[in-house]
Amino acid sequence: MQGLYRYRVGDVLRVAGFKNNAPQFNFMRRRNVVLSIDMDKTNETELQNAVKKAVDHLMIMSNVSLVEYTSFPDTSTFPGHYVLYWKLQGNNNNVVIPQKVLEECCLVMEEFLGYEYRYMRTNKKLIGPLEIKIVETGTFCKLMDHAINQGSSVAQYKTPRCMKPGSMFEILNSMVLSSFFSPRCPQL
Question: pLDDT confidence of 1, banded at 50, 70, 90?
């Protein structure tokens, strides 16, 4: 279909209206893009909502905004846990964000993830504390450059919301400046 080249088969779109007889689409989410450690399944919409709530908290507490993010279900530890990589931007480059604020952002995200996640984290203890890793300026540009060098189109590249182990994941981890964990379990 002409004009739908940025979408993948299975993406969820909503018809927002019509121009002449052609439908106008709003992108809703990718199909099958989920984070999962155990029995939990977090889809992209849930993840985006949780990130938005945490970023709202971050802006109130420190006047810093989120530029870009991606995530990874880290199962290399027991229990496994969600890891989010954030690129932040403030009014000046020397903004220092208190550790407590970023830990609170982790907890805010956990509070807004689905019931299955919170139950597995709180009652079953099968999911560890959510982690936010702050990355250097230029990290997401390096990811895009790497993807393009591997054959992706510049026009179609979008930062993946969920990473898989591999060379892009290694780039992410090499650019981490600091790491923060949720200070306690979320409420059910």
Answer: very low
